[in-house]
Write a structure and sequence with these properties.
Blueprint lengths: L13 H18 L19 H33 L14 H6 L7 H4 L3
């Protein structure tokens, strides 16, 4: 009678990967001056309004916006873990490959559908 052999590789802890990503994103936002609960970045009242500074401020705000969007994706992935839908493509419901989930733990799409958008 053949016995079941446990896999050599431990199961990936996707929640830990997502929580690490969440912490990193929150740290980057904090470094940019983004304060939790506020809609924009904090700047000193004496912040010079030259064209270069204005451009840099715009770049920082754009980066903060992208970081916030990514953070929202991470929060959504954690919610999918909680409700049991994590790891399924939102288009066809098929399982997303473990390699893709390890590389991009907050992904919502399998590689085929991610390439189509």
């Amino acid at each position: 009678m053949p016995s079941e052999t446990p896999t050599d590789a431990p199961a990936t802890d996707y929640r830990s990967l997502l929580l690490i990503e969440q912490t990193n994103l929150e740290g980057e936002l904090s470094e940019l001056g983004f304060d939790h609960g506020k809609t924009g970045l904090d700047y000193d009242a004496n912040f010079a309004d030259t064209s270069q500074v204005t451009a840099e401020r715009g770049e920082a705000e754009a980066l903060a916006g992208k970081l916030k969007d990514t953070l929202e994706e991470v929060h959504a992935a954690i919610m999918r873990l909680d409700d049991g839908t994590y790891g399924r493509c939102e288009v066809d419901g098929e399982a997303i490959s473990p390699a893709r989930l390890e590389a991009m733990p907050a992904t919502r799409f399998c590689i085929d559908h991610a390439n189509r958008s």
